[in-house]
Amino acid sequence: MNLKQIAKDTAKTLQRYLTYQALRTVLAQLGETNPPLQLWLHNFSADKIHDGEAYIEQLLRQKPELALRIMTVREHIAAEITEFLPEMVCTGIQQANMEQRRQHLERITKIDTSNPSLSPEQQPTKDPNLDNLSS
Question: Predicted confidence band at 125 (pLDDT cuts at 50, 70, 90)?
Fold first, then answer.
């Protein structure tokens, strides 16, 4: 396991995602201030946003002011989330793993959590010796 390469790949994926989120933010802003430009940006971005850096490079050639705006928003989003992102990722993975394990355990033990009332065959049997202890 090459942790350094995993970290690089994760950072690249996050960078692409933040580019996408910055685009969504700018599109929402343009929707309020300049709908024709919003439509142009939406159409331009349709199949290009998958590779964030290539997308920014193409946009810089077409409309540099929009590319710079998206880069600024992306940088702002990154600065705002980096403080608490590691903890959120770790906590999210721990909770998701716990939920997956719980669901797996329920499947392999055939527990039906959708029906809390158990059939008579599923009811725990009482030990008559335990009843005598409480008397």
Answer: low
Exposure string (b/e) for 108-128, b if CB count within 10 Å is 16 or more?
eeeeeeeeeeeeeeeeeeeee
User: Residue 26 sits in which domain range?
Assistant: 3-82
pTM for the predicted model, two decimal places:
0.71
Q: Is there a domain that residue 100 lies in?
A: no
The residue among 57, 52, 23, 21 whose CA lies nearest residue 40 is: 23
Task: Choose among 17, 82, 25, 8: nearest CA to 55.
Answer: 17
Place of tokens 């880069």: 71
- Structural domain includes residue 127: no
